[in-house]
Amino acid sequence: MLMAHPAILRNLVEQYETLRILHAQDGSPQVRQRMDDVAYTLCVSTGTRDVDTALIAARHQLPGARPEDDSLLTA
Fold it and tell me: Is the pTM of this model over 0.70?
């Protein structure tokens, strides 16, 4: 499987987290659409099917992640 560059993954994770906050604050259709787009890209980039799994996979692929660290599961 091809793996996305860590800089791309970090950017996608940061975008998704920011958009999730924005969506919680105002819930606009534009923010929701962008959030869905970023979620889709995260899933494709990590070879997963849902955004929660994609976020965990992306974080585990970032430099400094420890495979035995399960604290990411509560994020």
Answer: yes
